[in-house]
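Contributing: when you submit paired examples, paste them exactly as shown. First protein:
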Amino acid sequence: MIQKLLDKHYGDYLGFIRRAMIKDQIQSRGVKDPRVLAAMEKVCRHCFVTEDMVSRAYEDYPLPIAAGQTISQPYIVALMSELLGLQGGERVLEVGTGSGYQTAVLAELAAEVYTVEILPELARGAAERLAKLGCRNINFKTGDGAAGWADKAPYDAILATCAAPEVPPELLKQLKAGGRLVIPVGGKDSQDLLLITKTASGPERKTICAVRFVPMTGGG
């Protein structure tokens, strides 16, 4: 009984600091989409970090996960999700499953998520974690994310959680007309988050902000 009470108290505490994270880190920086904010409140970031990082799960920066990778800063997850402009019926491709945190947020916002991870260790861990959390609209593939997932294309939106030196042409090819691609582009020390909209006259690029992501390790 005492352990159950302690577990409930800790769960309530994590819920409180998650709501504080949304107000102080995300809304205060201009993210307004109510669907994104609701998804960020529902998805427990502490479920996607290592046990020794649970107490730091809602802090305002990336955290290390397995295989030398990171789980993104909460604000960046919310910002990138908002930039996709999802309404709920879309098919979304994610490049870089990682811990599965961004994947879970996308699963709250879209009808179907297709996620590609090049590192088998991360792919397996994320699939198991998301299954335990009850996510049913996610499809997993282990492979080179720069090549996308061609046989499931086209996609309404594509989001990359790793930085490419330039935009992989296969990702643009697999994007529907009018679709949006959100991707960090640049080298190790200098990257820009880009929003690319596929129009009839070609891709339109908009630079959102400077970012720092782990590099894309495939053909990007």
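Second protein:
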Amino acid sequence: MIAAYLSWYLVLVIVASLVVSLLTARLGLPAPRLIVTLFVILILSPLVVGYLYVVYFDSLPEVIVPAVTGVTLEVARERLAAVDLQGREAGQVYEPKYPEGIIISQRPEAGRNVKVGRVVNLMINSGESKVPVPNVIGQLISQAGGILQAAQLRIGDIRWEKNPGQAEGTIIAQEPMPGEQAVFGSRVDLLAATSAEVITEESSEEGKKLNERE
């Protein structure tokens, strides 16, 4: 590491010298103050950076990353904290080999040497296989069934809404919305258009009350 750093430092010194010489020749001055200042900065900056790296980064001790897969997030963080590392939840995915809430992968991997204080990203098992909900809005109910089945989902409740501008049975809304994650094999509720009058539960109850009053 030090040899590489010195090599880069030598390259910078050579480049800085060439720049100073070129600018001095262009300006026609033996030693312009601005050029000298820039030259000093270019020479000293690698030394400053190298000093900061050695003092604050390279001097940090290293530890071996422990294995935390197969345990809960709380336990994983405790094991990592014991060796001065930090555990951070990186997301959730479904993995049938592990129970819900268990760490299924980690980055950096177990056994690697890292600086103390390093963050270890932990992936947690969601416990449920989820799939993106396809967009069936604008499709007929008969077509929506095949689309949902291909995505490992099913048609749920179907509600109707009077909408003469749409073909009979055209889907005008869905829940969950397109692109959302749904549990594998779950149902998608649909709202479909119809040209007929739709009798809802509320209107049916109101009709019963009117009949009772009469």
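If you have annotations for the second protein, write them as plain sentences, like these:
The radius of gyration is 34 Å.
The chain has a mean pLDDT of 80.
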